[in-house]
Amino acid sequence: MVRPNSRFTHVQPFDIDKVAAAAGADPDVLRMENLDTDVPPPPAAVAATTESLRAGTGNSWLPFTGLPVLCEAVAADLRSRTGLDFDPLRQVAVTSGGTSAVLPTLLATTEPGDPVVLTDPTYAGLLQRVRLSGARPHLVPLRVEGGRWRLDRDALAAVPAAAALLLMSPSMPSGVVLDRDDWAAVARLCERTGAYLIYDAAMERLVFDGRPRVNPCQVDGLAERTIIIGSVSKEYRMIGWRIGWVAGPPDVMARIMVATVYNTTVAGGFQQHGAAAALTDPAGGGVAEAAAEYQARHDTVIAQLDGFPVVRADGGWSCLVDAEALGLGAGELSARLLDRGRIAATPMTAWGATVAPRYVRLVFSNEPVERLSELRARFTAALP
Fold it and tell me: Start and end of every Aminotransferase class I/classII large domain (predicted)?
């Protein structure tokens, strides 16, 4: 008999792998269930990784918190985004992907039972890691206004206590982009509660329609409280490299580095050289071009589903369709889309509490516009 463990009492499993397994390898299925992408990574990153493999420069356990070349590249990138100087040795730690930084950061900033504020919906990998850390999620809803997601600032202002806020912008799975007034509301809550802001910046530059990008460190009161998590997976399309980082104030970073080292020892050295090349690529790593391609795909999805209860994203790789507005549960809609429409799409069961579970996510990062142009016909075939 398995011994009980309270950390797992409320942890919910992913459904992505189940949907992917059900879809199999059928080439006719639109693969909209997982955050893969067919947009290639930067050639400079591929070349640097290949050269590191050839030369054997990354085959080491050391340094535990990241190669200096990558830590320096991260610090320079953060300077351009935030206007702040980060010490590459004391304020940057390299991790095995961005989400691998989340649990060490939570362990360093919370005690068991502490409330951590997230949005509803949010990425399941963030929400469930809060639970695994022993902290307690406090979910603040996103609301649909004018066909787009907006943060419920009144609900945010009503949060009584928090050890940390764990936020993403653009956020998975909704594609909401937090504006300066949203971040100002976050700053007020952090000031009132003494909370850290843990900011997942993995998609920060993947915004649509020329919307302004606001890094929270640029907002009064947040720079000294913000811990930034980044990676090369989304902006640079380097999912398989599994390289991320965490950066923040030196005092808390000392604890985060300890937790990171004892969690994974070290991230892959060959991949770190590739990540450094992406961050320092004179061509910009193709980020702007990728963002434009994702917007074209998003806009195709929205046009194809005109009249359906789909919510526009302001950035990122995915958007959400309201299953309950179609008279179905999210799981039932997901099953119908696959069985009748040949669309693999994931129900948001583990991605929130009251808002997320009514939605199904449509990922547009791994399907070209030509195939997404079949979406309306496939949806029509799937629905009664």
Answer: 39-375
